[in-house]
Amino acid sequence: MPETFKPADEQQLTELIAWAVAEETPLEIIGSGSKRGLGRPVDATHVVDLSGLSGVIDYQPSELLVVAGPGTPLGEVEQLLADNNQMLAFEPPDWGWLLHGESRPGTIGGAVAVGSAGPRRMKAGGARDHLLGARSISGRGELFVSGSRVVKNVTGYDLPKLLTGSYGTLAAFGELNIKTLPAPEKTYTLLVYGLTESEAVAAMRDAAGSPYEVSGVSYLPAGAASASKVDYVASPGESVTAMRFEGPKVSVEHRLSSLRGELGNESEELHSMNSVKFWSEVRDVRLLPADLPIIWRVSCPPTSMDAVLTAAAPGAWFADWAGGLLWLGFDATTEGMDAKIRAALREGGHATLIKAPEAIRRAVSVFEPEPAPLAKLSARVKNSFDPKAILNPGRMVEGV
User: Largest CB tally within 10 Å, which of 168, 311, 358, 380?
Assistant: First the structure.
């Protein structure tokens, strides 16, 4: 019978994985379980629940550093930082709305394990850019330390970046050292109404390349714009192109006003809580209907937007990261959908199936297929960390 193990500390976790290696027993590694629907279904005998490795171990606001166990609730970390006017700059999303129909932010370990990032990624980078170091247990049952607790360090291979986004297939986290940043004094948003897709691509490009330091740029076609719960002027038939400005009040007002004057389109400003609420909807993908069974996440050059939308013909969609990220929703799966989307990425990019029934996630390439040389290298990396495929087998590649 499948059993759930809940180690209380790093030593118990190490001993548990070492036992699994000796018995050649595959394990599913989870935090709170909020992201179990991501990736391919895991083929494991037992579950390892890391929620026992919870709590902030060290926090040094002056050093912009927080150290926490992987099972620490994300909300706990964010509240501690907010109390000290700091934040996680990579803006980890709450995909509980997508996968479970309700808020389930998950744990700090889960956010790093899947390499999540919100709208600020275009300016601040993703989770891998903010993980300074980690204590981890490999699929050999061995504890290893990578990175450090300082921003500048020389430790050989940059293993924290390798572990971030590996979906727990290389190692289980025991402790994470994460860089924090000061929270902005003000957050304002410029909403530009009625742009077509091609006009929006040009406007987003100009905003992202401007000297006005936008920290989020998103395009909502009419359907997604009307799904927002934020009260703004746009009519149900109008698209919304949104640009976020963060920082000191005087600076934010000047930068927003300058860009607004250059664009010259019908527009509106969102201030304070309305602005924060709007970007939380973008971050958490709450602008797509929660009951859509199929969700694809496509990273591509903004100039590929039209080709991807034509090939996929989604029922609902919107763009983030200044057009570099497309969220596509479908009422039902279509045979060959993954091939159609990926064929449209002639200028580069990758497509990931974020939400789908288990049968579909087993049948299609959930993650972008790697070229043969890269796939061979990835297999060697996996084998070096987890030679017996003990950790989350099958989640990223079938069988390993």
Answer: 168
DSSP states of 137-202 as a string?
EETTS-EEEEE-SSSS---SS-HHHHHTTSTTSSEEEEEEEEE-EEPPSEEEEEEEES--HHHHHH
CATH 3.40.50.720 corresponds to the domain 1-183+370-400: no
Task: Match 């390892």 to its residue by tokens.
Answer: 48
Q: pLDDT per position in the chain (400 positions), as tens?
A: 679 999 999 999 999 999 999 999 999 999 999 999 999 999 999 999 999 999 999 999 999 999 999 999 999 999 999 999 999 999 999 999 999 999 999 999 999 999 999 999 999 999 999 999 999 999 999 999 998 766 555 555 589 999 999 999 999 999 999 999 999 999 999 999 999 999 999 999 999 999 999 999 999 999 999 999 999 988 888 999 999 999 999 999 999 999 999 998 889 999 989 999 999 999 999 999 989 999 999 999 999 999 999 999 999 999 999 999 999 999 987 778 899 999 999 899 999 999 999 999 999 999 999 999 999 999 999 999 999 999 999 999 876 6
Q: How many residues does the chain have?
A: 400
- Domain 1-183+370-400 matches domain 186-281 at the CATH topology level: no
The CATH number of domain 186-281 is 3.40.350.10: no
> For the structural domain made of 294-366, what CATH number should be given?
3.30.70
